[in-house]
Amino acid sequence: EDKVVQSPLSLVVHEGDTVTLNCSYEVTNFRSLLWYKQEKKAPTFLFMLTSSGIEKKSGRLSSILDKKELFSILNITATQTGDSAVYLCATGGGANNLFFGTGTRLTVIP
Amino acid sequence: NAGVTQTPKFRILKIGQSMTLQCTQDMNHNYMYWYRQDPGMGLKLIYYSVGAGITDKGEVPNGYNVSRSTTEDFPLRLELAAPSQTSVYFCASTSETGIQPQHFGDGTRLSIL
């Protein structure tokens, strides 16, 4: 059975801190791993990773995939209060859909 | 560009009532999905469609039905609403599953009382 496990479940940091969010997975016919940010409404797309060892960056956010160890990390440097959200990890496999983890709730305190 | 549009945004139903959640996308995507998200949980797939006229069950299909008569629209029908169906429902679409990211609507918050 496909499985995505995110850790930690929740995290509280101060502005300026650096955080690392973890996502491990077991999925049949792996094609991609995606990170989404969810504030009050719909998840918004951050990154899609398909190859091991290639870091994707967007501003203060970056992510990398390890297909041998079946995990990915999402790093956020110099956190801001606007980074407060639930971060969802999902894997795209052979079943025509995405399989989501339960998310990590990040709270950034001023 | 509107993307994925869901209506209504909020709804309260009584136990046993039925309703249809609407979802439409204007990106000409073949793949469309319905998810539900319970408090503190991730998204669970209810139904999905790989093109007009083709639908299939996801992880939690019981109590729901879908249809896909056009590329743009993918309505979700709740028959005989139950309190366990209280949730936030998200519709999503993509041009190629597993290769392109899914785009989500803003969700429908549904309460069954």
Structure, explained:
The complex is a heterodimer of chains A (110) and B (113). In chain A, 0% of the residues lie in helices and 57% in strands. With 110 residues, chain A is mainly beta. Chain A is globular. Chain A has strands at 3-7, 10-14, 19-26, 32-38, 44-49, 56-58, 61-66, 71-76, 85-92, 98-100, 104-109. Chain B has 113 residues and is mostly beta strands. Helix content of chain B is 0%, strand content 50%. Chain B contains no helices and 11 strands. In chain B, the strands form 2 sheets. In chain B, strands 2, 4, 5, 6, 9, 10 and 11 form a 7-stranded mixed sheet that branches. In chain B, strands 1-3-8-7 form a 4-stranded antiparallel sheet, with no helix packed on it. The mean pLDDT of chain B is 92.
Number of strands of chain A: 11
Share in helix of chain A: under 10%
The coarse overall form of chain A would be globular
First-last Cα distance of chain B:
36 Å
Q: Low-confidence segments of chain A, ≥5 residues, pLDDT <50?
A: none
- Oligomeric nature of the chains: heterodimer
Derived from helix and strand composition plus strand pairing, the structural class of chain B reads mainly beta
Give the N-to-C terminal Cα separation of chain A: 41 Å
Helix content of chain B: under 10%
Which structural category do the helix and sheet elements of chain A fall into? mainly beta
What's the SSE pattern of chain A? EEEEEEEEEEE
Characterize the main sheet of chain B. Answer: 7 strands, mixed
Largest interface, by Cβ-Cβ below 8 angstroms: which chains and how many residues each? A-B, 23 and 26 residues
The proportion of strand residues of chain A reads: over 45%
Uncertain segments of chain B: none
| Rg over alpha carbons of chain A | 13 Å
Strands of chain B, count: 11
Major sheet of chain A: size, sense and barrel closure?
Answer: 6 strands, mixed
Rg of chain B to the nearest angstrom? 13 Å
